[in-house]
Amino acid sequence: MGNHFHILLETPQANLVTGMTTPFFPASGPATRSFNGLPPKSKFLALIVGVALFGTFAGFVASLFVEPDIKREEKEVHALAQQIKALRGEIQAIDDKISRQNRKMNRDNQKMLAANHQPPPPQNPAA
Predict the structure, then answer these.
(1) Which domain holds residue 67?
(2) pLDDT at residue 14 tops 90
């Protein structure tokens, strides 16, 4: 699976949890204190706005990874559409050629039948 990476860190002291939580607490402390001072309806609104902003940011970041693939696929689809258009033209040309040959063969067959057609012998009315 080439769509993700794994990072392995080895620390001399077991302080990985401290390293992960150190940036979290200074940012979460003031936010929590200010959030706790809001009335309940404002907390709900702040939560909805926060989720919407996070979703927008996550969508933007995801589009940076997905957009090149979409553009490449659009180019491939356009190239395939051009190939299909060319093939349809070739098929139509072949169909027209077959139709002309069939008409020519029908005319030739009718001429041959007319040339080989002999009138029936006259019948003797007295007999």
Answers:
(1) 38-114
(2) no
